[in-house]
Every structure is written in structure tokens, then in C-alpha cells.
Task: structure prediction
Amino acid sequence: MEKKNLDIETIKRYWIAEGEEALTVAGHLFEKGDYSYALFFGHLAIEKLLKGLFVDRQHEHAPRLHSLPRLARLAGLNLDEARQDTLIVISAFNIEARYPDLKRSFRERCTEEYAREQLEKVKEMFEWLRRMTR
Result:
């Protein structure tokens, strides 16, 4: 599909809505004590918002990637070291929650305190990225 035929605003709004929904689900999962999946959905929220930014800035469909630092780079974001590090940590939630050999140790690490701290970082990153989509 050619770039000029894309409805960029509609596609961007789709990704933003999907990201907001994933963040809501992360909160629900946290409330139920399912901390590893709450963090997984936190990753999804950031991934989807980055895809919305990519579409908005590059005027093409978002790549089928899950690496948050790579998506940020492709979207043309200029991240400081702290935000880059945060994206690296959040990206790990995708891999660690999905693959059985890593899942058990990740679940053991996902205490309520750890998940709360990490979800706060997800929310801070989400809000920072969300301001760029307006």
C-alpha cells in the first residue's frame, strides 16, 4: 500500500486506543495479583503507543516488532539514557512472560512490590509518549 493512501490519523488513533486499553488491562491484572502478566500488558501498552508514534511520524504502517528501543528509534524518538534503559527493562517483560523457560523465574521475581514499581515506570513512560501523540 502506498503511503499517500493511508489514513494516518485513523491508524494512529487505533494504536493509541489499543495502548490505552492494554494499560487498563495491566491495572486489572495487577489488582488481581497476576503481576507477571500485568507487566506483560504494560509492555504491550508501550509497544502500541510507540507504533502509533511511528505511524504519525513516518506515515506508514508500524513494523511488526516488539523491541521497544528499536521501535522508538524507528519512530525517530531521541531518548535520553534513562528512558532508553527503561525501555530495555520493559521490553524484557514481553520475552520473560511469554517463554516457558524464563516464565517461572520471572513470575517468582514479580512480587507485588516489584510489579508496582515497574508499572509506575510503565505509566510514566506511557504518559511521556502519550503527550507526543496529541
Notes: Helices lie at 8-31, 35-58, 68-74, 81-98, 100-109, 112-132.
